[in-house]
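The step that takes the researchers longest sounds almost clerical: writing a folded protein down as plain text. Below is the pair of lines this work produces for a single protein:

——
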Amino acid sequence: MDQKRDHDEDSSEQNMRKKLETSEEANAVTKITDVNDDCFEVIFGHLMLQDLVNVADTCKRFQTSSKAAFATKCRGKVMMLDPSLNRLPPIESFKNAVEVFGMSNCLKVLRHFGHKITMIYIDYLYINEVKQAELGRYMNEYCADSLIDIAIAGAPKEVAANWTKPFVNAQTIELRWSDLGDLSEWFPKTRRLVLHAGAKWAENTFPHLEELEIHDDVNEDKRASIAETLRLNPHLPQLRLLDLGYDMKFMKGVSSYLQSLTLLDIRCDDEFFNLGGSSIHLKSVKEFNIDLRRVGEMSRIPFSFGQLEKMQLKVNDFKMNDNFGKFLKQNPSLSKLVIHSQVCIWAQNSRTVEQIKMDIAEVSPLLEVMILAFRRRRFDIDEL
């Protein structure tokens, strides 16, 4: 009897020990809440961007890791938001950009990952005023500190009316069909300002502005606005006037504000040369680009310089003439000349190319000359 009692007690202890071991093993199973943020970041890094947005939208526990994974996947890419277009897939990633479609997706991306976005393009066109205001508010609330490059299309004044703080680190601002009021207030550290068709801006002082680039045919009102902006920013080092509507009268009127320029890039038509033999002297310009493709015949270049080092000339049919020869003699500091011309489209025109180089060498023997030919049906060019 005693032996049986001892055996039963041993069996009971063994069963109890097995139950305890089983319970401990069950408790030792790793739960999802036991995984640390670094592991989640690795896991989330394998997700498609749309899935990553959905994960961030589930709970606060996953947000830190999903934001880190997003920053890694999208580093160096422009975030392009198009709320007006709903399509599948709603988010597409390319080499240099991520495209987000649909209002809901755009808002989610801004809410969860806005502080990780450094470059953004937002299209406010084709959505109603309520959605424009909401999208603008999200952009300002979640991206005000992180954005460096900002491109905006179709933003009315109501968008900026919902902003509560400036974009303190934004350096490049590009506007199309947008009116955001006082740009210097919202973008106080602007270094590069690019204005396309329909962009409106107040005449402001930009203390950090290094480049002003305008892609827009201008009328009298716009010329007056540009002139005022140039007057308020006489420290501007680079100016690009890349559409038509400017003339020598305008350039002479603003020339006193351009004496700090180191680069001037300008596009001309026949109307540009409406002051006859007038000329403008820019003492500090080292690089000069002039587009004469809308000019009937290559005219005298109405600029003179004190420190010119590099020049790019775009012209339909380049022919060395006395006017251009005089220009070269007046700029002995010029060391590199790049000519874009349709006269050299075909390879059999190599003799023409060599003749042009020889004609230039007679005037400026030390000048480095490069001749590029425009293709007729493509935007790229070939060096000859």
About this structure: The longest helix spans residues 2-28. Residues 286-384 form one domain. DSSP finds twelve helices and 17 strands in the chain. The longest strand covers residues 287-294.
